[in-house]
Each structure stands twice: as structure tokens, then as C-alpha cells.
């Protein structure tokens, strides 16, 4: 089994589990609903369930290599919305060094990029764009759907 297929299966498993937890685990349901409510999306309960359902379904499809490109595109949209509306806010606006108390340094572009690249969503996006381009790889149900 190729590294590509292993990566696709593991990312699919990740999204299947996280989507499932957001649908059925009370703590993750509450976190998802609170996050979506704070962001200000309309109909937060519907939006939370809709997003978690598709995260779970698209993750399962990636896991088994079915509708790989469509699933990748759907997950890319979900991650981009989360990244833009929520996760970019976790990057600090200024730097507070531990040695020089009281002095605040502005965030330079390279440091901002470093913080951005440390976000796990960036890695997920990179992999999903690869899956979008290459499809299911050597192993997957897409092989049978295409025939």
C-alpha cells in the first residue's frame, strides 16, 4: 500500500471520527454549537449538524476511496470556512517577548506565516488538495465506480 493511500485513509479516518463525535458526543456537540454561535452563523444548531454530518460522510468516503475528489472538495470548503472564520483568530496580533517585559513587538509577515503554518488545518488543506488532484490512488472504491 502506498504512502499516498495510507495518508488518504488516515485523513479520512480523522474526519470520520471528528465528524461523528460532533454529531453524537455531547461535549463535542456543545463545543461545535458554541463555536458556531460565537462566530455568528445563522441557524447555529442546523449549521453545526450539517457541517458535522458532511465532515463524517466525506471523511468516510475518503477512508474507503469513494468519491474522493468530491469529498476532498467538500472538506476543503469546511476547513477554509473554519480557518477564515475561527482559526486565524488564534494567531497573535503582536509579540510579547518573555525577556523584555512591557515591550510589545509588531507581528512581522514571516512570523505570522510561521504561526499560520503551525495550524493543523493548513496540513489538512495541503493533503486534501493533493487528494483532489490525484483522486483515490491505487486502492479505493472509485476504481469500480469509474468502470
Top keywords for this entry?
147 residues, mainly alpha, 7 helices, 2 strands, 71% helix, 3% strand, globular
Can you characterise this structure?
The structure is a single chain. This protein is 71% helix and 3% strand. With 147 residues, the chain is an all-alpha fold. Helix 4 (68-85) runs antiparallel to helix 6 (120-134). The longest helix is centred in the first third of the chain and has 22 residues, at 3-24. It starts with a helix and ends with a helix. The mean pLDDT is 92.
Shape: globular
- How far apart are the termini? 22 Å
What class do helices, strands and sheet pairing give? mainly alpha
Strand order of the largest sheet: 1-2
Number of strands: 2
What is the residue-mean pLDDT, rounded to a whole number? 92
Strand residue content:
under 5%
What is the N-to-C order of secondary-structure elements (H for helix, E for strand)?
A: HHHHEEHHH
Major β-sheet annotation: 2 strands, antiparallel
> What's the number of helices?
7
Cα-atom radius of gyration: 18 Å
Assembly state = single chain
Quick structural gist:
This protein is mainly α and 147 residues long.
List the helices and strands and how they pair.
Blueprint: H1 3-24, H2 26-39, H3 44-64, H4 68-85, E1 94-95, E2 105-106, H5 109-118, H6 120-134, H7 142-145
Antiparallel strand pairs: 1-2
Helix pairs in contact: 1-2, 1-3, 2-3, 3-4, 4-6
Amino acid at each position: 500500500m502506498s504512502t499516498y493511500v495510507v495518508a488518504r485513509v488516515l485523513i479520512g479516518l480523522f474526519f470520520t471520527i471528528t465528524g461523528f463525535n460532533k454529531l453524537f458526543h455531547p461535549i463535542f456537540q456543545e463545543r461545535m454549537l458554541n463555536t458556531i454561535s460565537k462566530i455568528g452563523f445563522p441557524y447555529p444548531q442546523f449549521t453545526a449538524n450539517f457541517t458535522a454530518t458532511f465532515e463524517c460522510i466525506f471523511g468516510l468516503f475518503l477512508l474507503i476511496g469513494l468519491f474522493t475528489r468530491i469529498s476532498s472538495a467538500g472538506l476543503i470548503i469546511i476547513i477554509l470556512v473554519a480557518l477564515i472564520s475561527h482559526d486565524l483568530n488564534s494567531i497573535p496580533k503582536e509579540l510579547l517577548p518573555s525577556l523584555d517585559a512591557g515591550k510589545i513587538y509588531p507581528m512581522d509577515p514571516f512570523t505570522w506565516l510561521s504561526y499560520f503554518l503551525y495550524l493543523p488545518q493548513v496540513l489538512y488543506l495541503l493533503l486534501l488538495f493533493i487528494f483532489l488532484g490525484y483522486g483515490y490512488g491505487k486502492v479505493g472504491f472509485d476504481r469500480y465506480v469509474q468502470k
